[in-house]
Amino acid sequence: MNILLLGSGGRENAFAWKIVNSHKCNRLFVAPGNAGTAEIATNVAISPTDFEGLAAFVLQNQIDMIVVGPEEPLVKGVSDYFKNHPTLSNLPVVGPPKLGAQLEGSKDFSKRFMQRHGIPTAGYETFTKETIDAGLDYLHSHSLPIVLKADGLAAGKGVLICTTREEAIESFKEMLLQSKFGAASDKVVVEEFLDGIELSVFVATDGLNYRILPEAKDYKRIGEADTGLNTGGMGAVSPVPFADAAFLHKVEERIVKPTVAGLKKDNIPFVGFLFIGLMNIKGNPYVIEYNVRMGDPETEAVLPRIGSDFVDLLLAMGTQTLDKYTLEILPHTCTTVVMVAGGYPGDYEKGHSIHGLSEASKKESAKIFHAGTKLGENGAVLTNGGRVLAVTGMGGSIQEALDNAYKTVSEISWEGAYFRRDIGQDILKYKN
């Protein structure tokens, strides 16, 4: 098969790595890709939201399947575009249409969906600029802490946990009246705070059938001990030792099955990956949020644990034959450490040369996935984003996997590079 993968981050580098290792892959193109995907596939200078440009490329290069990595093209309707194209309507696209993508594109839409289908989640109310007075009254009577969520896409940064009423009121006004997160905060969801331990479960579905992929725990804050600003993700661990078989059975029965059934009942077609952000509260799962694609950096810890053919999985999803696919999950542990540019998630510089990559890449105990990188002159790899590299260590335990990840990280450098040194430390107490 000739496959077109959309995106340019660490998630897409991990996808590309799994795709090119499949006997089903003839050629892989990545639009637009990064320096890591350029090593194993052909990068194409087309934006994932340039649907006409993508369609022309698909026709010119006899593409057999499209795989969508990030959320933005999904929310903007890339799947719908190809489904309605006069000559490409039968092309398998792995990624839900615009309506299904609203599970991520609108927090209010997803909360109403969960409420409708009896899926356990935090209590909430939604407010706009027009209903701000009612919102302020609600905040005055709400228990602390208070969670504020921008309704729309905010690059993983639109969630605020406010520990005082004053902070909640000020942030609420900033979101609605001063567009703190742009158009994403035209609506604000106010939620009760769930006190537990967080993890993510990933589901592949063809709209009828599903397969549950390995779970993961990620680390969002920039600072160690989960301090500082939210980021797109600073690290991940899979499997999650506190998510035992009994807990994951509850996730499947109480959340996965009702979600897939709810999508069918609401006539929401959904082909793709469903990322379910969960809170484990005394052994019971509650949904924090849905995303309609794989997570980043969780993908870099999850995909190395899939032993069965990945293109077969993607094709089964795209052709609604997932019931015939056997998912093999490998028993080893993967831990991912994200290396970021100095200053991230605030202002940061691009264009710094990355040193030590070629030697560090030779290790069998670790895998380096490129996120924000580009090729410079003479083939030098340069930083080109906030999150630059995701380094995944593998081992028989969390500690062994972490040792392998951090040993590899120590061999890579660029001006201003930063990474958290405490990924996975909080869950070492659990049996792994």
Automatic annotation (TrEMBL):
Keyword Nucleotide-binding: yes
Class in the EC hierarchy, top level: ligase
GO molecular function, one term: metal ion binding
Catalytic activity: 5-phospho-beta-D-ribosylamine + glycine + ATP = N(1)-(5-phospho-beta-D-ribosyl)glycinamide + ADP + phosphate + H(+)
One Pfam family, short name: GARS_C
Tree of life domain: Bacteria
Enzyme Commission number: 6.3.4.13
The name this protein goes by in its record: Phosphoribosylamine--glycine ligase
Organism of origin: Mariniradius saccharolyticus AK6
